[in-house]
Design a protein that fits this description.
- The chain is α/β, with parallel strands linked by helices.
- The protein has one domain: Alpha/Beta hydrolase fold, catalytic domain (Rossmann fold).
- The chain is 35% helix and 19% strand.
- It is built from ten helices and ten strands.
- Strands 1-2-4-3-5-6-9-10 form an eight-stranded mixed sheet, with helices on both faces.
- Helix 2 (89-103) packs across helix 3 (115-126) and helix 5 (164-175) crosses helix 6.
- It is globular.
Length: 297
Amino acid sequence: MTGEQQDFSDFFYKSDDGLRLHARLYGGAADGRLPAIVCLPGLTRNARDFHHLALHLANDPTTPRLVVAFDYRGRGLSDYSPDPATYSVAVEARDIVTGLNELGVEQAQFIGTSRGGLIMHILAATNPDLMSAAVFNDVGPALEVEGLRQIRDYLDGSRTPKSFGEAVDIQRGIHGAAFPALRSEDWERFVRAIYRDESGVPVLDYDPKLVALFKAMTLEGPLPTLWEQFDLMAGIPMMVIRGENSRLLSVETVAEMERRHPGLIAITAAGQGHAPLLEMASHPETIGRFLRNAAKL
């Protein structure tokens, strides 16, 4: 059992280079009066991360919406790429645009976790009219190298579990100190989002070549920033959610985001690290209210 309701449909489309890519669709068809909501996951994550949040947003009793949660190439139900060099934020941004074009979505509100937020910065430069509101989940235009090293280390050190119970133990051992807010049922849901079920055996749901690429990165010294792209979003409503124990997004970066974007709403996810589970606490209600207000609904 995955604990998921099948309250979504699977959408498949072709990338520019011929891969069969996947997204989950929650709610009805695109409606020009109600902006769609697009959910973009982290580096090795997939659309399942957004399941409970997407159900909440799509089934809002007053403003039900279309919610589109993407699997990037090499993750979830999307094809793995024969060329690992295409596992880049630039290519993934193009894939998102291709999928939205096929769905007839010309403008949407975006929620981006980690890598998803980096893709949003790229889209702000390449498709400036696409985003009408932005929610950044533990990501911003400047990232801390310590946080990326931490991600590299736990991806490199992941053991292969023989059962979902063992998978919970592994993930709790890796992330438990940063996520004291998670209860047993939260860890089980977290694990079901990371691993696919192959006859009861959990298997990490992404192309292993992603990890090889990430391990090859030189994580010495300051990282390049995306402040120029961030400033292109000055005209849209914005929220940033920072994990209280995050090592990737610093308090100082959030403060600079607030300085550059007056009106930005900054929230701390108590008892969570990188990246916060958005279905926890009152985050679904807070995000839903922000997106309704941003759309003036």
